[in-house]
Amino acid sequence: MADPAPVLTLPLLRSLYAYWDGKRQGRPLPDRADIDPIEMRPWLGHLMLVERSGEDDYIYRLYGSAFVDQFKVDMTGQSISALPPQQALLLRTEYAAAVRAGIPLSRQYTATFDYTSRDKRSAWQVERTWERLVLPLTGGAESVRMLLVGAYPIETIEEVAK
Q1: Domains in the chain: boundaries
Q2: pTM for the predicted model, two decimal places
Q3: Which of 11, 48, 52, 130 could form a disulfide with 149 if both were Cys (CB 3.0 to 4.6 A apart)?
Q4: Where in 10-143 does DSSP place strands (E)?
Q5: Which CATH fold would you assign to the domain 11-161?
């Protein structure tokens, strides 16, 4: 019996899960080689491809442009150890759980983000809630070698009305 699908509120993450699920082709997990970058176009700016490095470290092989824009840093090629310690610990724990269980994981989180106007004359903070999906991938064997991560901000009614 297949593992239950994660509970997702955003249609883009539900479609990403469906894509991943279709690539399993009767196997517990799809392989990294099954993921076609051309087919990933609908989600590309909102994806991360994270590779396991040893037992407890992870390296960003792809860090989507939406994350670079939001977090003001490009983590491509960097370890999660380069992140602030509390964030690195949270992600290491989440990624290890996905690797260990070998099933998709999802969660919503809220964080405060700093913004600066283009002319640099004003700055402000905005609290945003994001939904993320972590999808395990094998790497030519049965063990999980990579994680495909998609994340999107959840728009509030006030943001949509603007």
Answers
A1: 11-161
A2: 0.85
A3: 48
A4: 47-53, 57-63, 105-116, 123-138
A5: Beta-Lactamase (3.30.450)
